[in-house]
Amino acid sequence: MVFMEGMTEWLPASHVPAVSALFKNKKEAPKTPPIPWAPSPTAPPKVSKTNVSEDKYQNGLSLKLNRLITAAVADGEISDLERQVLIRNAQEENVPMDEFVMILEARLFEQRQVLFAQQKEMEHRQQMEKAAQAVQVASMKVETATHKAKQDGNVVKKCPACGAPIKAIATCCPECGYDYSADNGTSPVERLNAQLSAIDNEKASGLMGKYLSVMGAGDQSPEKIEKKKRVIMNFPLPSDKMGILDLFIACASQAGGVFSKNKLGSAYKTKAEQILSKARIIMKDDPKLFAEINDLANKYKIKA
């Protein structure tokens, strides 16, 4: 800015002709050409944020001090010697002691959490391995026992008539006398009557049984009555509709009417109720049979 006589205000030198004329003939100095063999100038390397976080652990402490802390808390505990070394290095770096203690305790807590999670994971893995081993051992024991039982012919199953345990090689039930070879070609009613007849043909046991047998009432002994009741109540229900209907008529007719005083009447009635419950499920798509079995249930006063 310049000011001359006759001017009313300060103006830039380039706006005053008398002043700007003094610089018109001045030439600019030539620029120095670059040296042919000199490398092109490059910007100084920038320090990445990753390097900063690695060097400082984002806590303001030096790399050396952070590494010492990492080594000290590796086992989740800090010994007196380790604490003294850490405090001495923090004092040499002029780190405020209260801040250093907070950082140290935080790092120790984090490491303990990591160790605790690792311990839990290890325990869980060990438990899973033990459970898998136990299942494998149990499976091997079952397979061994089954194989041995098959070799000995002692595989145990249940009688379809009375539910008593029987051997696989048996042809009849030792409890109720049910003959497994008689199933083919016979109706459920015939099989039930055959089982009851087999009980009647058994020899009387005990003084009372022998006495009743001599008196001609062997089939009414308490022991045989109980066996017959078990046979009736545990007799397997047929799967076909006509078999269900025939067995229901046989059982329902024995449960009431003139047979109401029969000692087996309660067992027949219970069996008839079981058959009726199954029949109403199986025969619901057959209106004719459904109505017929309901009429029979009303006639013999059987309720499911």
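[next item in queue]
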Amino acid sequence: MFHKTQGIVLSVTKYNDRFSIAQVFTSDFGRTAYMLPISKSKKPKINPALFFPLSVIDMEVEHFPLRQIHRLKDVQRQFPLYSINVNVIKLSIAFFLSEFLTKVLQETNENKVVFCFIKDSIITLEEKDRGLANFHLAFMFNLAQFLGIAPNLDDYNKDSLFDLMNGEYTFEKRTHNHYLNLQQSNFLNVFKKINFNNMHLYKLSQGDRNVLINFMLDYYRMHVYDFTEIKSLEVLRELY
């Protein structure tokens, strides 16, 4: 049965001599795997170049609920990623986020809401020229709200510690060691207001930014099943 949907490309891996497997987050079916034909033709029916990480595409697909890998009938690009493709900083962010999303986007009941947030974020990355050093931090922090795993930051107190495992502020340590220290916990209360419009106002050192991303990844690892190491993170660390 054929359906029309929108998709955001996450990754492409070679399957055999005839096909690659494209992981795509769709607005209607969530994260889905598709057979992407490998063609040597100058004008292939489905252009593999459309499957660049974070590309937003219009798709007509054959989709069956119990099938693990689905088929593509037609694919068109919604808009080009000119700036992302030529800007090394944006490119590194795109590769990091595509790998991050591949691990985070498993199953969700709010596909369209999550899809719209990610699509709008990609448009922002394409258009923004300042504050990019904090883009991935703002993205990861705000995505948690759309995935339903946002921490509870309402009970902040200047003398409290943030518990990463339980996602809340507390005055006493429990039986684990996953806490931010007092300074980091206090900064989180300020950082919770970050978004794409004000991210350039957060002046962070490379060390502070790396500490933040470590704790954010730890938080996701504790709240998302089978969240493994992100290989592209080291490239991002070198740039920032």
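[queue empty]
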